[in-house]
Specification:
This protein is of the alpha/beta class and 154 residues long. The chain has a single domain, classed as 3-Layer(aba) Sandwich (Mannitol-specific EII, Chain A). Helix content is 43%, strand content 23%. Strands 1, 2, 3, 4, 5 and 6 form a six-stranded mixed sheet that branches. It is globular, with a radius of gyration of 14 Å. The relative contact order is 0.21.
């Protein structure tokens, strides 16, 4: 599965202003709900993301987090990406504030696909060059292009 299969330009947002992890999850939930072809509502999405976050942080260091959740009555995987105006505390092991978040919503029963996507995203965000480009990207379209081009090249 390629990132282009799960994320669209409409589910990428640049320079999002939030002050907390909860605010970031709410922003992502609203982005998913407004741009998703499914019937998922922002509250249902937030609950799925927040439930996973309560189990432990989804921050993976270097200013990146990959919030993810399982949703009932869904057969598709969805992705969304936000770049924050300023970093927020997400309890990262390296104590660095998070300003790049790639969120995933997966069907409740898609274990293998879910784990493969998380591994792929962790690999992608291990690239210091890509992280720097994402941090400094001026708009949503540039962010989307950077993500998709990296994925296609690797």
């Amino acid at each position: 599965m390629q990132l282009a299969d799960i994320i669209t330009p409409d589910r990428v947002a640049a320079q999002v202003h939030v002050n907390s992890k909860k605010g970031a999850l709410e922003s992502i939930s609203n982005l998913f709900a407004s741009q998703s072809s499914s019937s998922l509502g922002s509250n249902e999405i937030f609950d799925a993301l927040f439930a996973r976050e309560r189990l432990g942080t989804t921050a993976i260091d270097h200013g990146v987090a990959i919030p993810h959740g399982r949703v009932k009555n869904s057969t598709e995987t969805y992705g969304a990406f936000i770049q924050l105006q300023k970093g927020i505390d997400c309890d990262a092991m390296d104590r660095e504030s998070v300003s790049l978040l790639f969120a995933l919503l997966v069907p409740e029963e898609s274990t293998d696909e879910h784990l493969q996507l998380l591994a792929r995203l962790a690999e992608m965000f291990s690239s210091a060059e890509l992280r720097e480009q994402l941090h400094t990207a001026p708009d949503s379209q540039t962010l989307y292009t950077l993500l998709i081009e990296w994925d296609r090249a690797h």
